[in-house]
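User: Could you walk me through two proteins back to back? I'd like the raw sequence and the structure tokens for each, with a short line separating them so I can tell where one ends and the next begins.

Assistant: Of course. Protein one, sequence then structure:
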Amino acid sequence: MITAEEHQAALLPVNGLMQVIINGKKICLARNQMGYFAIQDNCPHAGGVLSRGWCEGNRVVCPVHRYAYDLRTGRGVADQGDAVKTYPVEEREDGIYLGIKDAWAWLKPG
């Protein structure tokens, strides 16, 4: 049996990003020291794929023009004037769950 920490690391390492597709929606799943976060995967500025960017603290940075978005609120940094949609995330014993509309989607490693 693996530990909860091993399960989380198998899904996504700390400061990692990955794209998940749930009900046709492309979502950027991020993990930092505070836990897991989920935001829309396309940058509203130029359409870049945020899951191909990187984490800097509580922000995800777009690989196209380096626009940054707060993982907790979705707000762009000062003077950007934009934001991304955020989704609720729950860490449970059996995995990570993302809240999409009226449902929760279970994410498992592999």
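----
Protein two, same layout:
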Amino acid sequence: MCIRSVIADKYLYLESKMYLTGVVMALEMTRLSEKGQIVIPNEMRKRMSLKEGTRFLVVGLDDTIVLRRLELSQERMRLKQLLEKSRAKAEKVGFTEKEIDRLIHSYRKASR
């Protein structure tokens, strides 16, 4: 098997993998859709455990775009789960949004 390699700047390209100081990164091709969407290849999504709704920070510099996955801290995740459970219970009981706002306001006023 013949492996072609090219050294460009600080990167060494071997077949479809890019090596940068011991880190292996897969290289894949994708394209921009009419709606401005880019598909992240399935292999990368699986390897990085990316799911629908995963949020990214998008950084653009010259002709390069970098996507960086945003991860919520454990506290923010717990708060988000608590809010989801609370909303579901309030909806099940039949509270309206106005009633919930009024309860929050009265609780805050009483705790001052």
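Residues 74-110 form one domain.

Let me know if you want the two compared in more detail.
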